[in-house]
Amino acid sequence: MEGMDLEMVEQVARLDEWVAEGDVVVLSGAGLSTDSGIPDYRGPSGSARRGSPMTYQTFTGDPVARRRYWARSHLGWRTIGDARPNDGHRAVARLQERGLLAGVITQNVDGLHQAAGARDVIELHGNMARVVCLACGDTSGRDELEARLSAANPGFEAVAATVNPDGDVELDDAEVAGFTVVDCGACGGMLKPDVVYFGETVPPDRVSRSFALVAGARTLLVLGSSLTVMSGRRFVLRAVRDGVRVAIVNRGVTRGEPYADLVIDAPLGVILPNLAPLTV
Ligand SMILES: NC(=O)c1ccc[n+]([C@@H]2O[C@H](COP(=O)([O-])OP(=O)(O)OC[C@H]3O[C@@H](n4cnc5c(N)ncnc54)[C@H](O)[C@@H]3O)[C@@H](O)[C@H]2O)c1
Ligand SMILES: [Zn+2]
């Protein structure tokens, strides 16, 4: 508990009690993965995010935007593909292993909960490590696609030498124009990362399974999400409606504050390893 003031020590002790009572549902966001080197959207490290996020409509309707997306993403993929779980992901997996969690719902698309050993994770927004064909519905691994993109674009990595370390790659129009996009190996249809874009809805079964988890929980524990998007915030609203208490651990403000019974404004890497310490 080094470095915490008295108020925070008390807050963590309270959260610790709630976690020890079990039936906790975790709702995680991008803030849980910043310690793994993946930038968030709205936190301090994500405030420099340029431009607006890709929408489903732009991706499917604008071939130039789509080519730009795949070119940038091909270069930036390793940031997510090579990321490793951090102490926060490991703490969540440990709580689950000890039977204290009723479920894990994540808005993240990086697969790091599972990489840390968590099971039955509901990936609300999908997973970047998968690719889906919009024509035939076939899903395949991102690594396989990366190999096909590399083969279709020999020397491309060398051309685009000025890669941003956070994977947010800037490319000029000429570099993008020379990039070849790859289509579905099964039917030739349009491929898309198996993630939910802005302008898409989360598949209803994921939402209903998540609502059911929250309704049956004792505590909804929000980890590293600004709760800006309704996609995640609705579970906080449901928890309040169902009388499920809400705890938030997040650096900086969130849109869940008015509904939360406990808010800890601190780094997850400091708080999570302190929860439910192994005393036996
Ligand atoms: N890792 C990923 O998979 C990833 C990364 C970026 C964005 N996204 C997508 O973008 C959307 C972003 O919404 P969101 O609410 O998840 O994220 P967000 O970017 O809106 O909010 C993240 C919050 O976490 C806080 N934070 C960052 N690092 C932290 C740390 N170490 N400890 C405590 N708090 C920390 C930030 O201050 C911010 O308030 C999601 O829908 C998600 O699908 C995913
Ligand atoms: Zn197909």
TrEMBL record:
Catalyzed reactions per annotation: N(6)-acetyl-L-lysyl-[protein] + NAD(+) + H2O = 2''-O-acetyl-ADP-D-ribose + nicotinamide + L-lysyl-[protein]
Q: What class of enzyme is it?
A: transferase
Record's cofactor remark: Binds 1 zinc ion per subunit.
Q: Per UniProt, where does Zn(2+) bind?
A: C133, C136, C184, C187
Cofactor(s) demanded: Zn(2+)
The record's comment on protein family reads: Belongs to the sirtuin family. Class II subfamily.
Q: State the protein's name.
A: NAD-dependent protein deacetylase
Organism per entry:
Actinoplanes xinjiangensis
The organism's lineage is: Bacteria, Bacillati, Actinomycetota, Actinomycetes, Micromonosporales
